[in-house]
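Entry type: protein chain
Record version: 2
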Amino acid sequence: MANRGKTACGTTILGRPEMFGKEIDKGIWWTVGVDCGEERHRFVLVDDRGERQSGCWVRNRRDKIEEAVAQMVLALPAGVRLRLVTEGVRSLGWVVAQVSGSLGLEVWQVNPKALNHYRDLEGQPRKDDDIDAYLAARMVVFGMEGCRVAVDPRPEERALCRLTRLRRQLSDRRTVVKNRLRSLLVELAPEVVSKDWEGPARDGKGMHAVLKRWPAFEDLDKARISTIEKVLRSSTRYGDRCRAMSVPLKEMAMRVAMAPMEREIVKMDISMAIAELEVLDGSTAKLEKEIKHRVMEHPVGKKLLDMPGEGPVTVGTDIGEVLPVARNVSEGKAATYAGLTPLSRRSGKGGKPSKLARGVNKHALRTNYLSAIAAVSASAIDAAYHQKQKKRHQGHPKPHVKATLSLARQRFKIKYKLMTTDAVYDKEILISSHLERRRRVSANQNQPHAA
């Protein structure tokens, strides 16, 4: 099975000449496949032909991992070097990757989906720690798709990566809580979420202040207009509109019809949701402050912030996710890793939409896409390029998405140069080159064609 060049569906699994820009070393390598767990890891050692040599269980402790790796190094034949492969270098595989790197071992990473696919090819009926470690090692030995050398980022890049990912988790959690709150409001007073609602926005600070003071709008119908107006003025910037908004709020509260026992539970749920939103907002603000501080201290961060559409969070994501890779690969490969030039996984003629290739960093893709959207409003050059791409992709089901991805790809060329060289962002040079390019295009169009 290991000698297959293509799968039955046409996906190439062998024959990659490069791994993340590094040529495959032609020396003799033995490989340790690791299946990581919370309490212990499974180590399986295979030789350069992919044959199993030994295996052991190792407790998830730094000293135990160091001892196991040292014993395998001592057991190697003369002239043979050791490398290690695991499914991930974070979470469960963090300690293993750090210990192996400190001991001078080359650390590889295998994509879990690719490993599952190879397990199916080998005819393994179920997941098994020993088999997974063995198959991961064989994937590296035979150079299969889904394997790459793990890039070890610098401490400041690793810190920004953790901070930006944590902020993304808080943002996703806030969206879940807001959706839960909206569903409760639909049951309690559906007019609040309608388009013609004249009161405070359903997910705005004013509505949150009202729900905090009167959970489930209980006793709001008995409150004075001046009291409601005071609550809105203290939490929003509506100003004189607060009094006009207080009237529909009180009228809506008079129409709420829900059984007292059920309304008490909804009241409890709304109070918890409002409290959770306050905690999430405070934590997000604290994270954004820390991200901004670290980005301003980073030399690459200062250069990226000069680009239109870039903020501390997007720059922090680029530094934490893309910069460690960009230092080791070409611009095209870095763009593929960021998902801006994705390799299609579509095969056959079934007409199904293509998917992102394995190994694409979805955090980097989302960041570059959002920064391109912001750049359309912040830069006339980016807006002109976006319009040009929209016209080019007329007839596509989503021309605006294609245009935004094209803009993000163009912007990534500048980002890559800023991240890997001493160049700085100069708006004047870009404007002059843009105008010169338009002048040449206009001159070519106005030239009379030869008969």
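Comment: The radius of gyration is 28 Å.
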